[in-house]
Amino acid sequence: xxxxxxxxxxxxxxxxxxxxxxxxxxxxxxxxxxxxxxxxxxxxxxxxxxxxxxxxxxxxxxxxxxxxxxxxxxxxxxxxxxxxxxxxxxxxxxxxxxxxxxxxxxxxxxxxxxxxxxxxxxxxxxxxxxxxxxxxxxxxxxxxxxxxxxxxxxxxxxxxxxxxxxxxxxxxxxxxxxxxxxxxx
Length: 185
Description:
Layout: H1 2-33, E1 36-40, E2 55-59, E3 71-75, E4 81-90, E5 95-104, E6 110-112, E7 117-118, E8 122-130, H2 133-140, H3 143-166, H4 174-184
Antiparallel strand pairs: 1-2, 2-8, 3-4, 3-8, 4-5, 5-6, 5-7
């Protein structure tokens, strides 16, 4: 009886793990089909609006359509991808001025980024944000994270196969026969 419970538990875990892997793949790849690019939020410069560990989904826009207050994702001069709030758009110089809303000066005002961002380095604007998904995505896209996911799935499949061979399935009519005997008594 206990072996059947373990078998059901392993089957449930396997189904949940497979559903999680499929969900992660859908969340990571499906938005691209609709023009959104996902990026993990790795620093606290935009908290609380974009919490660390979130995933932002960025839509490509013409830089002249960016408005003050938008959260723009862009390449910094050193090549790093950053998402900050726009405080200025200069169509003549073709640049945007950005700021991390959590980066404060000594007087408590928001500190502007040191350099203006040319339109050519703008990726797009944030359309929506999913908390915590960035942590999962950042881990699962590393080699150790990928190995852990594959190992867990392999172990669950192996456990399911072993339990299938060791524990016989319950006959389909067993419950019906037991209930019929109870009614006769």
